[in-house]
Amino acid sequence: MRKRISSNPLTQHIQDNSSIYSFIVVLFLMGVIFGAVVVNSLSYGQKEDLFYYLSQFFGQVADGKVATSEDLFRQSFFHNVKFLGLIWILGISIIGLPLILILLFMKGVVVGFTVGFLVNKMGWGGFLLSVVTVLPQNLLIIPVFIFITVLSVGFSLKLIRKIFIKQGMNFVFAPLFMRYAAAFIIAIGIISVSASIEAYLSPALMKSIVSTLKS
Predict the structure, then answer these.
(1) Which residues contact 69 (CB under 8 A, 6 or more apart)?
(2) Does the pLDDT of residue 192 top 80, yes or no?
């Protein structure tokens, strides 16, 4: 049984890149914590201005005056694919390695700030809203972002080692790149599932929570 588990490609990939995964996960969590801390550094006026616009949005949600599910799907899908694609391209560029780490950190900041602000201003109701609006799609998005970031960092480090340290330009690039591209295609498929959740499931859950909080 242990041999069967270790022979699984995904398990083998995680084992081979355990140090990179550890670093990336810690970096992302640092971004989440930083985003939550930033909420407390905002002035009272800034919090009130943000909460005013948020309240307006929640009012539109409760009244059903939001974008169609198809529009929400397109916005979510293309936004995440562009962000993920940038990380993927930076992995090929070699010199984009620091930017990959910055982008993942910023992703964590956005998640941490969103949840932190909702909880800070709305308490338990804000926590419930963050669960239905942030958690469902991010259960897929965050692992995919971490996976692609690890692949991008690993791909970039392999290029650096093979070009500048070991083999010069005399190495087979095509198989390495094909595996890298295949992983990105799989990630796009998962992003489409998360976009469907964000477009079709989250608004209904949000409307239910908002209506409950208003009543």
Answers:
(1) 199, 200, 203
(2) yes
Q: At what angle do helices 124-133 and 135-160 cross, to 10 degrees?
A: 60
Q: How confident is the model at residue 29, as a pLDDT?
A: 95
CA of 151: how far to CAs of 13, 14, 89, 98, 175, in Å? 10, 10, 11, 14, 14
The residue length of the chain stands at 215
The C-alpha atoms of residue 67 and residue 140 are separated, in whole angstroms, by 23
Residue 53 corresponds to which tokens in the numbers above?
Answer: 């616009």
Q: Are 77 and 192 in contact (CB under 8 A)?
A: yes
Alpha-carbon distances, residue 150 vs 37, 68, 145, 146 (angstroms): 26, 34, 8, 6
Q: Give yes or no for residue 24 having a pLDDT over 90.
A: yes
pTM of the model: 0.84
Return all residues near 199 (Cβ < 8 A) that are at least 6 apart: 69, 70, 72, 73, 76
173, 189, 34: which is closest to 113 by C-alpha? Answer: 34
CA 136 to chain centre: 12
Give 140's contacts (C-beta < 8 A, 6+ positions apart). Answer: 190, 191, 193, 194, 197
pLDDT value of residue 65: 61
Task: At 104, give phi and psi (nearest 5°).
Answer: -65, -40
Residue 179 CA neighbour count, 13 Å, CB half? 11
DSSP secondary structure code for residue 162 in this structure? I
Place of tokens 């087979």: 172
